[in-house]
UniProtKB/TrEMBL annotation, chains A, B, C:
Keyword entries, A-Z: Acetylation, Fatty acid metabolism, Isomerase, Lipid metabolism, Mitochondrion, Transit peptide
Quaternary structure, from the entry: Homotrimer.
Entry protein name: Enoyl-CoA delta isomerase 1, mitochondrial
GO MF entries: delta(3)-delta(2)-enoyl-CoA isomerase activity
Chief location bin: mitochondrion
Catalyzed reaction equations: a (3E)-enoyl-CoA = a 4-saturated (2E)-enoyl-CoA; (2E)-tetradecenoyl-CoA = (3Z)-tetradecenoyl-CoA; (3Z)-dodecenoyl-CoA = (2E)-dodecenoyl-CoA; (3Z)-decenoyl-CoA = (2E)-decenoyl-CoA
Location of this chain's protein in the cell: Mitochondrion matrix
Organism: Astatotilapia calliptera
């Protein structure tokens, strides 16, 4: 979450480290430019997401290219969901690799600008888009592989965890994790459920309470990512790995994936509205808005 | 599952490897002989299963000796269940070691011949026997130790996972796993539940989606087996390990085992009929039967 | 549990090892002295528990000093709960370290003297106190760190598992685990749930069935403790670790902790009375009382 990266002034303790990380990714600087917001338009799909679909292999690669750090804004999330839906409906598309075109970052997470100074209605729409992204990716019939070629905090980590397999760049300057608490906010239950399904109950309890960001080596050790390769090899390894997954008959694989994930998906699907209300009530609190505002002014 | 090993022609990708494995286990060759089916009779209990019960130690050893690869046919499953029930009712029998008398294989899994060209009624009866085997083993009051002295795909892996402890022969030519998807079929929810209870959610998700067969070393690493020993030592190690388990008062151990497994057992117990119907509907589909037939003709 | 350490004569197999462990902790010898019981009084809080609260750091240290082995008696449990409640209500107290002032033992577990020759009413009151301790610790809003500076069987292991983080003395003579079955008794479902949340389903199944006591190194390997340090460093490491946890905003950390633990806590909260009845029915059985009596006479 950019929210996670920017949000609350109450979060001094871990902030210095995070900020230095931010500036190293060029994010803080770029985000300050109002121009970025102005660039948004409903026709930006082709700008912010590039999808290469290789008909012969049945594999698509989704390049996230929303400068500077692939923040998950309402607009970007909408574009991602539309792109995913198109691929999902194309029966010839069996596999999807998700990666970043931005240097040093996979995705910095949710966009704070969709939470600050916005109407409750806007915040609700934003949160529905976050839910939609998760529901679509976690429940995708396609084989999904995250080519995590940079840092992946909060919502970026969530996105990678929705995939069937995670390959991360073996660069110790990158990190991955759900670091919400460090910023004074709480990962919702379905972020938590996704992490429990990935690394188990105990590792999740530690990770979420401490808002841990793991180095690639640590992430591999607890199972938050499945494989580390040199930075230059992330995408090619993802493509090679895909071959192994494509060898499995789709129908059987899809039913199996659904059997594993359906209970977790159903939990959010049955509670979307309450979850939206929770988020809106939290984010529109004066204290939280004030914190967001002070942070943005910095 | 022999079904898993033979079933669908749609499964070309992984099949070559599996077939070579089959021929090395002598299975494919032997199974082609119709004589095998003819050998079946209701009095074959003593032929296909040998139970050695040592009254002094309270430990029985069940040798599966159904050539060539201990396929779990309706007949064999029935024999296994009857043998298990007898031991279960004998209060002097506290522990059971399950092993194979066939070379190189523990059990190749469910028998395709009970699924091909059979009436829905037969298929239903067969599936009830698979359920019965699982219910009896997973819920056994005895200490159960699997002495996995050979390959153990699909139903063979399931059988070993129902036990309290798994010792496998440290021979890299052997493998173990639920490889159903590789053959275009899907492990039912209770196979999945058993694996989740054994290796956790994430490892199960990978294993089941990819239909992974693990080498003994890999199986040990993810916790699919508990111990590796030299091929010659599997049975003696099982007996030695049993001593440790026998040191625990039966009543406390049984209540503890039940506490751990009852929720999983109750799930199938409450859904046996629906699960049978699912299986019969799937297996009697023209497309599946055709695939089975073509494979058998090969 | 001292119960676990003393209880049933049916438990010969593992008992020798346990008894030698007991005598090494000075427990068996000291416990034989009836004087210990006589020392009990309702005003002993300050005697059996010493709480050092450092207002400047917001961290309290609870020293358990109930000779000889910090047995969890009704009285001691009550004192612990009162002390915890006071700290919980003090908003300036954000973290709690639990440790032992007794040599070689963290806590030996539940006190058999509260289960032997007592009225059903007394046993019920005792069990409610055990539940209360677990509910208060597992649901604490404070950061809780167990400084496990000695052996920690049964109830002692449970207490440490309720904490957010466990640091154990790296002394191979110490051990930790839920060893109830070895003594012919069964860990209740909420002991089991706590362990599953800590080390997963499979490790718990093995640990509980076999009543395993782990060496510090083994405990670290399965995740039963989080860190090993030299005996002299346990408490200082706990304090240093606390600093990392204090860096997280309380509100976010508390909500996250509750999200992880609430379902487990709710299970007992909704079934306290049935759980008390189960315990009382079991412990007041003639056969169990006889075993307890014979053991105490030894």
């Amino acid at each position: 979450m950019k929210m996670a990266l920017r949000a609350c002034l109450r979060t001094k303790p871990g902030l210095t480290g995070l900020l230095s990380q931010l500036s190293c990714s060029g994010h803080a600087a770029a985000r300050r430019a109002p121009a970025l917001v102005a660039q948004r338009s409903s026709s930006s799909t082709s700008q912010k997401i590039k999808v290469d679909f290789d008909q012969s292999s049945g594999v698509a690669v989704m390049h996230m290219q929303s400068p500077p750090v692939n923040s998950l804004s309402l607009e970007f999330l909408t574009d991602v969901c539309i792109a995913l839906e198109k691929l999902e409906m194309d029966k010839s598309c069996r596999g999807l690799v998700v990666t970043s075109s931005q240097p040093k970052v996979f995705s910095a997470g949710l966009d704070i600008l969709d939470m600050y100074g916005k109407s409750p209605e806007h915040c609700a729409e934003f949160w529905k888009a976050v839910q939609e992204m998760w529901l679509k990716f976690y429940g995708s019939n396609m084989i999904t592989i995250a080519a995590v070629n940079g840092s992946s905090p909060a919502g970026g980590c969530l996105l990678s965890m929705t995939c069937d397999y995670r390959i991360m760049a073996d660069n110790p300057r990158y990190s991955i994790g759900l670091n919400e608490t460090k910023l004074g906010i709480v990962a919702p239950f379905w972020f938590k459920d996704t992490m429990v399904n990935t690394v188990g109950h105990r590792a999740t309890e530690m990770a979420l309470q401490l808002g841990l960001l793991y180095s690639p080596a640590e992430a591999l050790k607890i199972g938050l990512v499945d494989q580390l390769v040199h930075e230059d090899q992330v995408l090619t390894t993802a493509t090679e790995t895909m071959t192994k997954w494509l060898a499995i008959p789709d129908h059987a694989r899809q039913l199996t994936k659904s059997m594993m994930r359906k209970p977790t998906i159903d939990k959010l699907a049955a509670n979307r509205e309450a979850d939206v209300n929770n988020f809106v009530n939290f984010i529109t609190k004066d204290s939280i808005q004030k914190s967001l505002g002070m942070y943005l002014e910095m």
